[in-house]
Amino acid sequence: MPSEIFAIVVPVYLCAAVGFLWARLGRAFDTVLVTDLIMGVGAPCLVFSSLVSYEIQFAEAVEMIAATTVAIACMAGVSAIVLGVARIPLNTFLAPLTFGNTGNMGIPLCYFAFGEAGLSLAICVFAVTSVLHFTVGQAIWSGRAGWADVLRTPLVWAAVLALILMATGWGGAPWLTRTTSLLGSFTVPLMQLTLGVSLARLGVVRPGRSLALALVKLFVGIGVGLAVAGLFDLEGVAAGVLILACAMPAAVFNYMFAVRYQRSPGDVASLVVVSTLLAALAVPVLMALLLPESS
Predict the structure, then answer these.
(1) Which of 45, 66, 83, 99 has the fewest C-beta atoms under 10 angstroms from its C-beta?
(2) DSSP assignment letter at 100
């Protein structure tokens, strides 16, 4: 078991380490360009090709989408209570405690741990998280709802089209699935490199509070993941993917939103870094608990 967990976790952190070293060596890396490519091309193609090509049923995809939506709502609710009691600004820290790194870390971890079945389900989680992060999450950051952004999010259209094809039983034209699979294949490694570059560029301030919030993110996520998996009667790979996704550290996109809306970007960056480092310790332990049940 330790060697199996090692083989799952290490590739994820080694890929991120390449990005970290790249940035530390002063090499150029256009994070904005890469992020636009991932969110505008790579991720939508990965979502589409994964849902229509891999062995996942329409009902399974819908169930995972529903479970992820409920989990995110629960994490937001619990986190809001914690932040309110601690008198910490909700408009700065609610989104980082709610939206985890289901892309850069979640997708490769689920793929290495659970194979293609895990990848497909992780794609469902990532799609829901991304859509909600760029709509509800952005509303939290900005203080106003921007629901029109949903229609401008390529991930939404990719997921909807894939679900329609799955519901009708038509897997799509071979040229389409092969093209989207090819374009989607650059997404995961670029996500990992971007994570490493971002961590190299971010710093840590108020380490005590950052660690406390990182622990809240981790334990609230695990607790919600377990509760929602039980609520939806998820078992095996599905339960493992949901719990693991809920336990992911704060997404790097939170820092980008903090910069855009001037919501204490230094504090948010610190939370991203500390929660990611904490995940390096927590994920192997969580894997040891999840793998026997998902095998």
Answers:
(1) 66
(2) B
Contact status, residue 47 vs residue 155, Cβ threshold 8 Å: yes
Buried b or exposed e, range 266-276, using 16+ CB within 10 angstroms: ebbbbbbbbbb
**What percent of the chain has a predicted confidence (pLDDT) above 90?**
35
Inform me whether the pLDDT recorded for 127 exceeds 90.
Answer: no
C-beta atoms surrounding 222 within 10 Å: 17
> What's 191's domain CATH number?
1.20.1530.20
Q: Are 206 and 86 within 8 A, CB to CB? A: no
pLDDT digits (tens, 9 = 90+) for 232-259: 999 999 999 999 999 999 988 788 778 7
How many Å from the N-terminal Cα to the C-terminal Cα in the chain?
12
C-alpha pair distances (Å), 8 with each of 75, 141, 200, 222: 26, 34, 23, 19
Structure confidence at residue 149 (pLDDT): 64
Count structural domains, the chain. Answer: 1
CA 147 vs CA 75, 112, 273, 289: distances in Å: 21, 35, 30, 39
What is the token pair recorded at 185? 């294949």
The total number of residues shown for the chain amounts to 295
Structural domain of residue 58, as residue ranges? 2-294
